[in-house]
Amino acid sequence: RQSLQALIASLAGQTTQVEAGPLVPGASGQMETQPVLSPADRSRAVGTVRNAAVADVDRAFVAGRKGFARWSKMPVEARAACLDKTADLMEENRDRLLALLSAEAGKTLDDGIAEIREAVDFCRYYAQQARKLFGEAEAMPGPTGESNRLLWRGRGVFACISPWNFPLAIFLGQVSAALVAGNAVVAKPAPQTPLIAFEAVKLMHQAGVPADVLMLLPGGAEVGAAIAAHPALGGLAFTGSTGTAQSINRTLAAKTGPIVPLIAETGGINAMIVDATALAEQVADDVVMSAFRSAGQRCSALRILYLQEDIADGMLEMIEGAARELNLGDPALTTTDVGPVIDEKQKAMLEGHIADMRKGQKVRYAGTVPNTGNFFAPHIVELDKPEALTKEVFGPILHVVRWKAKDLGKVIESINATGYGLTLGVHSRIEQTIRTVTEALDTGNVYINRNMIGAVVGTQPFGGSGMSGTGFKAGGPAYLMRFALEQVISVNTAAAGGNASLMAIG
Ligand code: UN1
């Protein structure tokens, strides 16, 4: 840990450590470069980025079509091997990636280590799944004199648009799935975190993915809109806000060309229901972890806690006590529990929300913040009714509502009424309560008597439905299929004289 800390300090102290730009054959990029500032200290530039010019989007698709023609014909094993190699390279370069996650994304050391682990797991998991799914064409049952086989192939140039809160794991999760399914990829990282994406793409190139098969287009909404609108787009994976996903959906719907899939993972007003039988110490621990870890900047994070009123006062005291113990500050220090929020805009949004809450609700706890960088302290807000929270507030703010034992049905209704369905926590020792709640809600990931963040790849496939996304779960067995095109080949084997070579097409 000491050596990691020294490494992080040395990277944070240097400017222009990483000079990122578009990774597209023939790309020009914009004229100007911009500094990428550290969320923990706005006077520090972690590096510079030259964003893609809008004209580079078309260049990427033109190159990508050529790359796709070769890549999609390669045996799945060759593509899967590139993912495994990327995982190895990430492990070899772990310290550097960790330093960048800390400096550019404000990740604490624990979060940074977990994120690298997750990125490695995504690559290995999708490699392994692809071998199973896309290996041999599956023979389908059918009449004699006919052979039917189901093949999976890439869809073309797939776009991956990813968020700043998991700039390595979600970025590479999308990209590795799209690649191993046989697509060429145009990736647009979040404008706040282009450097780590740049490093990740370079590792993938080093692992054997050709330059015209994986391309990076750093930039903002303009670049994203041009990608979604491009006529050669084969499909799009997006993780970010519900509003942006809806806007991408409209762009795709307005196209006159091919109809392509959207894989969207968005937000939630995630709830935890705690009844009077719950184990208090466990609840306090899980609430603080779920609401404040990663400065609440996870789409899985707890936003609204429903406490049965009999235990609410005691529970809140414990939660507040635990929140007071959190160390807020420089993410590069091993003692830090909660780092900064990503940028000024997020900080101002959170401050605005608390100012609004002060108008009718009770702000029960407000932590203290360091005066450098974009820090926003954990807050606890008591709501008079759940409807007082009308939107996802992406940061370390825990909202609390009390409920009466007879009103479990109303709690369920309120949660359903949000229209979101990403994560749900339940703390109870009554099996019937757990059953009732779980069955009544469509939430994608339900966590019982534990915290509700940190879904593990291959163990807890992650994603929601409704306003939380299209529901194709990342890190699960069905994810890769969404990136691939199914082709069924039916051969009249009698007419072809039982020609064995025809039966092996594809
Ligand atoms: C996100 O925050 O955008 O389960 C999704 C978790 C993470 C969530 C990632 N895998 O906490």
TrEMBL record:
The lineage of its organism: Bacteria, Pseudomonadati, Pseudomonadota, Alphaproteobacteria, Sphingomonadales. The chain holds residues 532 to 1037 of 1039 of the full protein. The gene is putA. Residues 30-484 form the Aldehyde dehydrogenase domain. In the N-terminal section; belongs to the proline dehydrogenase family. This is Bifunctional protein PutA. Oxidizes proline to glutamate for use as a carbon and nitrogen source.
